[in-house]
Design brief:
Radius of gyration: 18 Å
Number of domains: 1
Oligomer: single chain
Number of helices: 12
CATH topology: Rhomboid-like fold
CATH superfamily: Rhomboid-like
Mean pLDDT: 89
Distance between the termini: 75 Å
Largest sheet: none
Amino acid sequence: MTATRQLFRGHGEVAAGKVIIGLNVAVWLVMTLLSAEPYQAAGPVFQHGALFGPYVADGEWWRLVTGAFLHSGVMHLGFNMLLLWFLAQEMEPVLGPWRFTLIYSVSLAGGALGVMLLSPNQPTVGASGAVFGLMGALVVLQVRAKQNPWRSGILGLVLVNVLFTFAVPGISVGGHLGGLLVGAVTGAVVPFRRVPEQGDALRHVVLAGLGVLCLVAAVLAARAALPDLVPTVQA
């Protein structure tokens, strides 16, 4: 079996995926313990960490990142972590932990940008943007590896989740689509072989720069939307 055929089919050690899942679960536990039951949104973790455009525009830029580690309930957390585990098993054994984490992080930033562009006035939480980014990256990576994303099932999974995004109220369309599109870009750029090749370092720098660019653009988008979000006090 050739190296190309082995791509995105192994289920080796998943270190980064476990760490990311552990962080999400730990934050959810803290959020739950510190919340005024039964409303987690009343707790301090949500209040100081959820992604919300007016607060981002006011300088609380960390919400662009922390919002992706908060979840609205155990079902929300469980679905995202299950999908993250599946994708980590497919991708991390091939990419390695650092490249996998880089794709996840840049996709997270893309999801935050999508939220600030489409729904900055809606408090948003969840790892869905980053997870959608992993799906987008995997589709492109399989195409680059001359695999059929329809046969593997990942393209069908993407389409089902996109339809679910538009069909169910209360889901962040901007977060999902932003993460998906930026993740697809990372899949086109990231080196996908463990053997170092010329230009790999430049590709990593480009991806890191894309993530920073998404975060900066998200802050600017939040500031641009601020006059429409905060009522003007009239005398």
